[in-house]
């Protein structure tokens, strides 16, 4: 069995066709030389069991003929040509791309083949009996390879490109490497061998024909002269030969900046002016040393290197690092110095070490600053004043002489005044022309120890020019207040207190503040020195102790004592005062706690609390009420009628507004009702007069009036007893009720 290949009409593929024929002919036809040199016929007889010999088919891509492309022919040794064998083709593209004549075994391509889409197809073939469909041979596999033709041009997949190269670069400096891809088969012919060339961009740049590296081909290209370049690069296959396909791309190349240019001031002399009233930090003006470079290569640093204004003015760089800002460093005064000269240097901050030979990268300019005269307010000879003055200074005493002058050349007259909000109580006055500050009221340190006065100075010819200064007046202390006792004016002594015992320690106060501190002395008033009850001991620490001279105290004998004490200070002139102490005699328990200081107060054990006392009193009150109710009930059992109805019937008052009616008056009332009030309610209403309605006001009803009086009397006295025990007065409301 064997296979044959026939490619009619394809001249370009003659050699592959021949190879295909040689490849796919049955081995029995080609012969199989053996080691023993057996003839070909015996080799054919020995290989009857192997009827298929498979290898590869080679087909050119991009066939554009009208008829299906003939690929080759399959033939089995068992095929006698009588049509009993049927050839079957399966695998990739079988039926859609490739077809086989099942009788002859001819294979055709019915679709256009493109190697760049698919470079080979794997197919399987089998010979079967047409009648029984029984396989005559096992299924075998073969490959159809698509041979390449130059049908794809090189492509720059990432184009167009952007690249940057520093200005002033040397010749041969690499800029960018380009790569073009060709979809053709690089292993077959020159279809995919690419060569690069430059179409536009010379003489500034060149490209390596093999690697595609773009390089600088012109030295000293200056960014300040030309910054952007457009280069067109071509890639051609077939090794660049005639007939090859080509693709192009664009490379936009930008020269990056380097610091190759020194700065230069746009003026050699700057004229500026500033008012003398400008505060420190005020901007005077701006200068600029221009630089052809950009970015960090144009950033500047400015400094004042000389001139008579180096200490008066300062210079700094603005946030863009391009301009120099001149500011005021010290206060200006036109009368002292009307102008200044500055020598300013501007220098690049970023230098290229390889380009220092192009330097220096600095420049110098002169700045002339004129100070403008401004009408300034008066100027005091001191920023603030401090004065100390005794509080006993006489009215009209000169506190301080303040002085202010007009700093301008005109030297206008100055007038003085006090800002009234700083001296609302008008303790001071200032002489309008001389500036003498004096008192107009007496000072009192204890009332106000500091006075902060604001003095105003105003130019007479220009009232808008006003300045102020603070005058702090401290009022010094003078011993003009006596010491006195503010606390402990009332104290107590227990009845069981013995002689020589301290009952209280007193302390004096003095509003004065002597520099050496307070030193008080205590003594009894002359009229109390020889009293037999109490004495005083000076503790020499600004305190004094009150002691008893005897024992046996009794509040029933005398409940209150009075003791005058004299307190003196230690300053000159000496000031003293007398304070009267009130001493109460009180009943105390064994621990010394006061129980009562009143001679009429009841004495109860200290162990009974207020709550317990109230509970006891409430129980007594309830018992009394119950007793009174029981007595009342017993009284009612003995009498058949209420005392109020029987005994007080004659006290009923009959009132009517009508004249006497004679017999009708006697018929209007039943006299029996006078004797029996119970029957008065049963009279028939027809017997009453219709022209009047009597109103009977009873003074008492069903509860005896005396019962109420007794209960209220007991309740009020219980409350009074409770309040007396607690040291409280009888409430006014209960007094009125009582």
Automatic annotation (TrEMBL):
Membrane topology of the entry: Single-pass type I membrane protein
One example GO MF annotation: cadherin binding
Domain Cadherin: 76-156, 157-265, 266-380, 381-485, 485-607
Keywords associated with the record: Calcium, Cell adhesion, Cell membrane, Cleavage on pair of basic residues, Glycoprotein, Membrane, Metal-binding, Repeat, Signal, Transmembrane, Transmembrane helix
A Pfam family it matches: Cadherin
Location of this chain's protein in the cell: Cell membrane
Family matches, as SMART domains: CA
CDD domains referenced in this protein's UniProt entry, alphabetically: Cadherin_repeat
GO cellular component labels: adherens junction; catenin complex
Major subcellular site: membrane
Membrane-spanning intervals of the chain: 612-631, 702-721
SUPFAM superfamilies the UniProt entry points to: Cadherin-like
PANTHER family linked: CADHERIN-20 (PTHR24027:SF84), CADHERIN-23 (PTHR24027)
Function: Cadherins are calcium-dependent cell adhesion proteins. They preferentially interact with themselves in a homophilic manner in connecting cells; cadherins may thus contribute to the sorting of heterogeneous cell types.
Protein's UniProt name: Cadherin 20
Originating species: Salarias fasciatus
Organism classification: Eukaryota, Metazoa, Chordata, Craniata, Vertebrata
């Amino acid at each position: 069995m064997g296979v044959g290949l026939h490619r009619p009409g394809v001249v370009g593929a003659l050699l592959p066709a021949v190879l295909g024929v040689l490849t796919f002919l049955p081995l029995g036809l080609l012969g199989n030389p053996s080691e023993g040199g057996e003839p070909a016929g015996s080799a054919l007889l020995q290989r009857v069991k192997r009827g298929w010999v498979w290898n590869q088919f080679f087909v050119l891509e991009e066939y554009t003929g009208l008829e299906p492309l003939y690929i080759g022919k399959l033939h089995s040794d068992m095929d006698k040509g009588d049509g009993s064998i049927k050839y079957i083709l399966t695998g990739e593209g079988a039926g859609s791309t490739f077809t086989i004549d099942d009788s002859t075994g001819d294979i055709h391509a019915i679709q256009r083949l493109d190697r760049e889409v698919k470079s080979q197809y794997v197919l399987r073939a089998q010979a079967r009996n047409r009648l029984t469909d029984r396989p005559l041979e096992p299924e075998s596999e073969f490959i159809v390879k698509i041979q390449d033709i130059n049908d794809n041009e090189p492509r720059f997949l990432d184009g167009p490109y952007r690249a940057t190269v520093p200005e002033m670069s040397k010749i041969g400096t690499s800029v960018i490497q380009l790569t073009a891809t060709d979809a053709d088969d690089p292993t077959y012919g020159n279809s995919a061998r690419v060569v690069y060339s430059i179409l536009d961009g010379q003489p500034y740049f060149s490209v390596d024909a093999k690697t595609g590296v773009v390089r600088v081909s012109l030295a000293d290209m200056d960014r300040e002269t030309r910054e952007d370049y457009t280069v067109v690069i071509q890639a051609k296959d077939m090794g660049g030969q005639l007939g090859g396909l080509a693709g192009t791309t664009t490379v936009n190349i930008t020269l990056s900046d380097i610091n190759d240019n020194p700065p230069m001031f746009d003026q050699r002399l700057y004229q500026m002016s500033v008012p003398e009233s400008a505060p420190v930090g005020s901007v005077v003006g701006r200068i600029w040393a221009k630089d052809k470079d950009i970015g960090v290569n144009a950033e500047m640093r400015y400094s004042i290197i000389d001139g008579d204004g180096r200490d008066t003015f300062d210079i700094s760089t603005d946030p863009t690092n391009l301009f120099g800002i001149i500011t005021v460093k010290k206060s200006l005064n036109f009368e002292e110095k009307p102008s200044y000269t500055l020598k300013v240097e501007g220098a690049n901050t970023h230098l290229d070490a390889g380009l220092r030979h192009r330097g220096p990268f600095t420049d110098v300019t002169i700045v002339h600053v004129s100070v403008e005269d401004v009408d300034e307010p008066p100027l005091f000879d001191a920023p603030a004043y401090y004065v100390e003055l005794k509080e006993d200074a006489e009215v009209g005493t000169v506190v301080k002489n303040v002085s202010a002058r007009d700093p301008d050349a005109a030297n206008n007259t100055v007038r003085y005044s006090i800002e009234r909000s700083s001296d609302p109580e008008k303790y001071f006055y200032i002489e309008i022309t001389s500036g003498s500050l004096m008192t107009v009221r007496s000072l009192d340190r204890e009332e106000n120890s500091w006075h902060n006065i604001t003095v105003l100075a105003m130019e007479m010819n220009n009232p808008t020019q006003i300045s102020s200064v603070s005058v702090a007046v401290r009022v010094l202390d003078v011993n003009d207040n006596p010491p006195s006792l503010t606390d402990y004016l009332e104290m107590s002594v227990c009845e069981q207190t013995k002689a020589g015992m301290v009952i209280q320690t007193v302390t004096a106060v003095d509003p004065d503040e002597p520099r050496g501190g307070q030193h008080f002395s205590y003594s009894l008033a002359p009229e109390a020195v020889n009293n037999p009850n109490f004495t005083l001991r000076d503790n020499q620490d600004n305190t004094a102790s009150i002691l008893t001279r005897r024992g046996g105290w009794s509040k029933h004998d005398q409940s209150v004592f009075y003791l005058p004490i004299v307190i003196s200070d230690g300053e000159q002139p000496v000031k003293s005062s007398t304070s009267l102490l009130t001493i109460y005699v009180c009943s105390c328990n064994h621990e010394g706690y006061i129980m009562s200081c009143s001679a009429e107060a009841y004495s109860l054990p200290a162990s009974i609390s207020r709550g317990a006392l109230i509970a006891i009193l409430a129980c007594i009150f309830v018992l009394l009420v119950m007793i009174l109710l029981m007595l009342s009930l017993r009284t009612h059992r003995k009498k058949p009628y209420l005392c109020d109805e029987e005994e007080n019937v004659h006290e009923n008052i009959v009132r009517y507004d009508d004249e006497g009616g004679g017999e009708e008056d006697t018929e209007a009332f039943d006299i029996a009702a006078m004797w029996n009030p119970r029957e008065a309610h049963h009279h028939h209403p027809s017997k009453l007069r219709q022209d009047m309605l009597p109103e009977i006001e009873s003074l008492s009803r069903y509860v005896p009036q005396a019962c109420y009086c007794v209960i209220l009397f007991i309740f009020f006295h219980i409350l009074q007893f409770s309040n007396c025990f607690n040291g409280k007065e009888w409430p006014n409301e209960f007094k009125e009720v009582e």
